[in-house]
Specification:
alpha+beta, Alpha-Beta Plaits, 4-stranded antiparallel sheet, 1 helix, about 35% strand
Length: about 80
């Protein structure tokens, strides 16, 4: 799993959260949207970025950090 933070220019309506993989959507006063959430892998990130592109939003920033499964509280590995 990876923790992803994406910033786009413009405000994405909060109702799009489910369609965008249950990403949290926060609007900033400077007119941008911050998306945060977990994705399974780079292929899922590519799909998410394609969805944002298809909505017509300009990407300003994308950061991704791999989540250590043992520190993420995953009990399904036991």
């Amino acid at each position: 799993m990876e923790q992803v933070a994406i910033i786009v220019k413009g405000h994405i309506d909060s109702s799009w959260s489910d369609w965008l993989g249950e990403m949290s959507i926060n609007h900033t006063s400077d007119g941008n949207t911050h998306l945060r959430g977990q994705i399974r892998d780079q292929a899922a990130l590519n799909g998410l970025l394609s969805q944002i592109f298809n909505l017509g939003f300009q990407l300003l920033s994308v950061t991704s950090e791999r989540i250590n499964r043992s520190s993420a509280g995953k009990e399904d590995d036991m």
